[in-house]
Amino acid sequence: MKDWFNYTAVLQIITAGLILGAGLPALFSLGVRLNAEGAGVAEHGGTVAQKNPALVALSWLLFGLVLAAVVVGVLFIARDFIAHHTDLYILGAKHKK
C-alpha cells in the first residue's frame, strides 16, 4: 500500500500550499496595516497615531517581497515557454534536444 502513495510528496505539497496560500496574503495584510500605522491613519482610542517613516518603509519592503514571490511564481510556471521562445533556461527549465 505504501508503493502507490508518496507521503513525502504530499507533505511537501501541503507545506508549500500553506506557506504560499496563507503566508503571502498574511504578509500583504501586515504590510497594509504597517502602512496605515506609519502614515498616521490608524486611530487608537480616538487619537490619531503619529507618522512613522520606518513603518512605511517596512510595509513597502513587505509589498516588494510579496511582489517578488508572485513574479518568481509566474516565471516558474512559464519557464519552459520562456526557454522555448528565448533560449533563456531559468528556474530549472529543460534544454531542448
Describe the model.
There is one protein chain. This protein is mainly α. It has a domain at about 20-85. Helix content is about 70%, strand content about 5%. The protein contains three helices and two strands, in the order αββαα. The chain has helices at about 5-40, 55-75, 80-85; strands at about 45, 45-50. Strands 1-2 form a two-stranded antiparallel sheet. Helix 1 packs antiparallel against helix 2. The longest helix has about 35 residues, at about 5-40. The mean pLDDT is about 85.
Blueprint of the fold:
Elements lengths: L6 H33 L3 E2 L2 E2 L4 H25 L1 H8 L11
Antiparallel strand pairs: 1-2
Features:
4% strand; 3 helices; two-stranded antiparallel sheet; 97 residues
What's a concise summary of this model?
The chain has 3 helices and 2 strands; from the N terminus they run H-E-E-H-H.
| Beta-strand content bin | under 5%
Q: Which term fits the overall shape? A: elongated
Fraction of residues in helix: 55-70%
Radius of gyration based on Cα positions? 20 Å
Q: What's the total count of β strands?
A: 2
Which structural category fits the helices and strands? mainly alpha
Instruction: Walk across the major sheet and give the strand order.
Output: 1-2
Please summarize the sheet with the most strands.
2 strands, antiparallel
Specify the number of helices: 3
Name the average pLDDT.
Answer: 87
Order of SSEs, N→C? Answer: HEEHH
Head-to-tail CA distance between termini? 37 Å
Q: Can you tell me the residue ranges where pLDDT is under 50 for at least 5 consecutive residues?
A: none
